[in-house]
Fold this protein.
Amino acid sequence: MNDDIDERAAALRFETRAVTPEDAAAVTAVLLAALDEEASAAASVAEPGRSAWVRSDGALRGPVVVGPGRWVRHGR
């Protein structure tokens, strides 16, 4: 076992009195394997890029131009 596994295993504490060394070793192995699996799954998740909503926001309309005569009411 390497030092990282030894440190994580030492951090576990069993609250029950009737834990055999074999039971403690089995539970420790299962817990450490589950933690390792979760850590590797979290590391493999790709960071999300910009969403389609954000990427397409500029394509909805052109820029608003302000100035004299630009704000004219049409149609009435």
About this structure: Residues 39 and 45 are 10 Å apart (CA to CA). DSSP finds three helices and no strands in the chain. The longest helix spans residues 21-44.
